[in-house]
Automatic annotation (TrEMBL):
The keyword Transmembrane applies. Its main location: membrane. This is Carbonate dehydratase. The chain crosses the membrane at residues 57-79, 85-101, 245-264, 276-303, 696-720, 726-747, 768-790, 802-823, 835-855, 867-884. GO terms for biological process: intracellular potassium ion homeostasis; intracellular sodium ion homeostasis; potassium ion import across plasma membrane; proton transmembrane transport; sodium ion export across plasma membrane. The keyword Nucleotide-binding applies. SMART domains: Cation_ATPase_N. PROSITE patterns: ATPASE_E1_E2. It comes from Stutzerimonas stutzeri.
Amino acid sequence: MSTPAPHDWHAQHAEQTLQHLDTSPDGLSAEQVQERLESFGPNRLPRRRRNGPLRRLLLQFHNLLIYVLLLSALVTLALGEWLDSAVIFAVVVINAIVGFIQEGKAEQAMRAIQKMLTLDSKVRRAGRTLNVPAEQLVPGDMVMLEAGDRVPADMRLLECRDLRIEEAALTGESLPASKQVEPVAQDAGIGDRYSMAYSGTLVSAGSGTGVVVATAGKTELGQISHMLGEVVSLQTPLLADMARFARVLTFIILALAVGTYLFGVGLRGYSTDEMLLAAVGLAVAAIPEGLPAVLTITLALGVQRMARRRAIIRRLPAVESLGAVTVICSDKTGTLTRNEMTVQQVFTAAHRYQIEGVGYAPTGRIRCDDGRLCELEEASDLHALARAGLLCNSASLLADGSGDEWSIAGDPTEAALLTLAGKLGLIAAHEHGYTPRVDSIPFSSERRCMASLHHDHSGHGLIYMIGAPERLVEVCNQQLIDGSAEPLDPSYWHGVLSDGAAQGLRMLGLAVRALGAPRHELNYEDLEGDFVLLGLVGMLDPPREEAIEAINECRQAGIAVKMITGDHAETAAAIARRLGLGDSTPITGAELDRLSDSQLDARLGDTTVFARTSPAHKLRLVQRLQACGARVAMTGDGVNDAPALKRADIGVAMGIKGTEVAKEAAQMVLADDNFATIANAVEEGRTVYDNLKKSILFILPTNGGEAMVLLVAIALGLTLPITPLQILWVNMITAVTLALALAFEPGEADVMRRPPRDPDTALLSTQLMWRVLLVAILMTAACIGVFVYAQQLGWSMEASRTLAVNTLVACEIAYLFSSRQINAPARFGWRDNPMVWGMIVLLALLQLAFTHWAPLQRLFATQSLDPLGWGICLLAGAALLAVVETEKWLRRRAGWPL
């Protein structure tokens, strides 16, 4: 071992560490603590600054189309048209308030599931033991750890008494790591640094003492936080798409406005002020000012639906981003698996038993060699093994009030043995009463076993031992068959170990030694031979059943699922097979370090499991997948997942078992830690995108028709059939009624059988723009046609314009039914979306007020219509619907769907 650098604390001897830190087993003096606190600062990570309310509100105006609207409002204000200007400003402000409120709700929902943790530490300073806040720890402090403590800083361990620490949040390893004082190799990964205890991990058993070697940002947790700060978040597909759309639309609108101004002044002889107002009217007509509000509301509805399904969306566009995801990279422990060790198989000398049931609930059937249900009364060897696991045990099973949820106190491996005993009907209190414990030796990483001493009230002593199978095969000379001891067959047990390893099981051996007379003390010499091997148990952190179904559903939706875990390759591969992820050979973190980017890219498509990975590996994998064109969702719950969560196109954190760092980095938090919710989110995301497309496909023809009405009128030298103020009324009223109704449309039947959409494909393709142009032309023809007809009948200008506006609205109502399905026939039913008919009724009432209510007549210069006028409106709407449906029918016949 080479001489380690001062920061390679895991490779240094304890004495070297104390010398480097200028401390002693008695701890630091008060002066040293104060000096180091000033030098290193408090032991806390910097907290991410949130946008304040004012900044969040101002960001709602950061939109190119909104800028054009504000410019239009300023122009109308400068021209003295204060009413038009006030309405435009009101539209912009309403849109901003809607977005502000919805984002605020998402932030509140996120804060509601966050749990703050204050931490005190037991520290030895100047020879005295004190309880101090973790924030006051400094390098050189001597910290004492006990079961249940959360490690407050990175520590080099100086004393260990059967110390085991759960490091899943940092390393992804599902089982607690056994700690030691002896140094390890300098190049050991984080998961193999057994001489260290890292900040944020949890002591599951034993006790120990360590010296603080790093605090705050210098800890492994802090390094990940720093890495997180350097990761650049990617723009969601929807926002990128809308940004492209806004740029193109803005360019077209400005070009039309300038062209109209120049044409009117240069060729038609209109005055400058008159054409400035016309240009503004054209911009107001063409800009879909209701679109930002519809976009926000559609996304907000998706957020609310997901919240009811136990998912919290932290950023509105994230719900839609899932609809474009092509790869989901998932952490294993606690995400795809239950994070609850479970005995899956029991191997005795005569039988192999399959144990059903998962988690810590002591319920589940037991099957024998041929798969038939086991007669428990006849399984004496299984009972003897389970009794040993129950008696040589320091864990506890805890049931909630209903008895449906079970938790543990103590080591997960020991708790799994208690669950096995419970499935066989063994009751802990009774067994301890029959065979009380006299003494015990806790688990030792050096001896790789634990043992307990018992007596049976009949003058007999018993030693039960649990440990690594290789260790027990060494100390056992007999094996139990049909209730009697026979000579041990080592080759049989080595074969069993190979079978278990192939299945990714964590194997444990159980043995018993009978004593001729009762004993009152147990020592290490008693563990060196003459034991009877009862059998081996194979344990696994089982996959979630709902995760298996969700993975299958994602595959049907064209989404690949890849497992990225810190666990061992064999275990990860076994879990992957059970999850239905295939039999591909896992790539380990060490292999990842040896692969160039091009070599890794070539293997990404066929590899579904990445094992023994570090935070940097996870981040690299997400980046390489994105470089290969994938849209990546990353799920996880640990600190080690946070950089990849932030870098991914959408990060999904677990809300219950997830760390605060993971939640902060993610765009979506699963409040129930259920992987299956992700499949629901994908479906919801695709539905949201469909509804956005339907809404846009509905809104744009309205704006296009209004703009074309102005262009045609100016080109032909006609009086404007609709005023700019009336245009604003139509845009805003129909956008928040009819267009909003499409946001409630249910998902199409094939939404989860389509491949993921290509995020680089424009939201509005050329073919979709054809539909927009067709409907815009039809609306323009109807609007100008009825206006000219009304003028020929001798109607007043106010009545003619009122007829034109209502005809436009009638055409929109008719087109709404057609827009409910882009390619399929128009849908008129109300059960699947009652909002459609509700909004039509609301809009009809608003148009009646617009037409007949005196205050609105004065504001918008309208006039009441007679039955003939309303009949003309209905006829125009029916004609437009017939033409659009005919176009859809012809497309279906020709096989040219949009």
